[in-house]
């Protein structure tokens, strides 16, 4: 965090964005609600705990703002501190008052690539693998890495969301996605350039969640039985 954002950007954040922005997290399992965003700020994306916005005059940076009462800000600052500078990750330029100024990453999520029928080369998967290995070498635990949290840009792989990288719990999402990529996507979808509608992608995502929850419940039951 040795690169400071432009003074004009910080002034706009404190004088224009923060006093007027209205965001709230109604349900921690659903994306937050953005009720009002002052002009000329633009909404780039939103997650379950935070919104990501940018100013058209400073489009090389984004501002990630946590909704009131939602955790994770301090942890995310620590993750960026450990990551430092790496081509597959964003970089934190400023962190204070429950918001971060980050380097903007451009690209298309692998989730959207499936919908658009964009070919995903092996290099993208390999780049993300190397980036996650790098994160582990910095004492982090890649967590919640799935199709909406990784992107492709000019044939390269990028990791977008690192907010859960301090969680030590094992997470198989990326390994499961890789298995689907090599076993199903490469032999079937890649050569045919098949497009998958969003309703089908959402159905797959929900089925995966249910399967993961069922698997976790079974493991918890077996662990409890062994401890008796």
From TrEMBL:
The lineage of its organism: Bacteria, Bacillati, Cyanobacteriota, Cyanophyceae, Nostocales. It comes from the Bacteria. Keywords: Kinase, Serine/threonine-protein kinase, Transferase. Gene3D superfamilies: Transferase(Phosphotransferase) domain 1 (1.10.510.10). GO terms for molecular function: protein serine/threonine kinase activity. Coiled coil: none annotated. This is Serine/threonine protein kinase.
